[in-house]
Amino acid sequence: MKLNDIRDNEGSSKERMRVGRGIGSGKGKQSGRGGKGQTARSGVRIKGFEGGQMPLHRRLPKRGFNAPFSTDYNEVNLGRLQQAVDAGKLDAGKPVTLEALIAAGVCAKARDGVKILGNGELKAKLTLEVDAASKAAIAAIEKVGGSVKLLAEAPAESA
């Protein structure tokens, strides 16, 4: 193989369309841009323009709110924890932390911590050290004989 033998694969690129080269080419006269007016000119954007009528995206009301300091937890159900224990990926004797869950493949990345949810059945006696847990999850864990230590401070309820 020589440098002067290197070529693109057949059909990997196509030649650009040469417009405005006579009506016989099929792309002459208006060059595929239709008639006259705003759309025939360059540098014009009319997305959402409705001929002067108030556009739909401006007629509809604004909704919602994005909290600037929201927390994005890894949500783990009790059933998923039991699966990991059954598969031998989580050691029931050691405390279950975020690092242990990532090592076991239950969570993909750290995010803002872990929240345990009560879906599924837990049979193993686990000691959990997590950022948050639902009341149902805490009740189910303590029923089996395990314990939950919450790392994040619970927000104070205002009366």
Description of the structure:
It is a single chain. This protein is α/β, with parallel strands linked by helices and 159 residues long. It has a domain at 74-150: Ribosomal Protein L15, Chain: K, domain 2, CATH 3.100.10.10. 19% of the residues lie in helices and 11% in strands. The chain contains 4 helices and 5 strands. The protein has helices at 56-59, 78-86, 98-104, 135-144, and strands at 74-77, 114-117, 127-130, 132-133, 147-150. The protein has a 3-stranded parallel β-sheet. A two-stranded parallel ribbon has the order 3-5. The N and C termini lie far apart (80 Å).
- The CATH class assignment of the domain at 74-150 is Alpha Beta
* Global Rg: 31 Å
Summed up, the helix count is 4
| Named CATH architecture of the domain at 74-150 | Ribosomal Protein L15, Chain: K, domain 2
In short:
This protein has about 160 residues and is of the alpha/beta class.
Structure characteristics:
alpha/beta; Ribosomal Protein L15, Chain: K, domain 2; 3-stranded parallel beta sheet; 4 helices; 5 strands; elongated
